[in-house]
Specification:
It contains four helices and four strands, in the order H-E-H-E-H-E-E-H. By secondary structure, it is α+β, with helices and mostly antiparallel strands.
Length: 158
Amino acid sequence: MDKLNQLYTQIEQQGIQAIRTHQEQLDPNLQNLEADSRQGLTLLIKLPSHVTRNINFVLNELERREPYQYYYTANTIHITVMDIRRAVSDFRMTKEELINYQRVIQKTIENVNAINWHLAGLICSPGAVLVKGFYSSELQQLRNDLRTNFLKNRISIG
């Protein structure tokens, strides 16, 4: 079993245990989105509409059964490539800093080969329902290259 399958198995076991013991990890900010002032910087990939539609079918069924949970809307379903700057309430970034992030990201992405994805199944974590995503080594290479290039350009991440 490869590392990603092991990780998904571990996450799912933790999720099942949390549900059984009523110790789900709820994000209090999702209960009051209007008051959530956290901001951060994340590199995302939008999914094709037919994939989003299929995920949304499942989410709609879950929402029918558990209407008080938070659910991503179809237009916000995504794959996280990298959390670049953690979301916090006092997040500050100048326009120049944002331009520098964009410049490094663009330059890094230009040198990446196509990333192949395979989405297969859902699992419960202690705090969410996740789609299991399997991807080619190019994604890890992109993440490594981004970290290296941010560091080279003295741009903070984390």
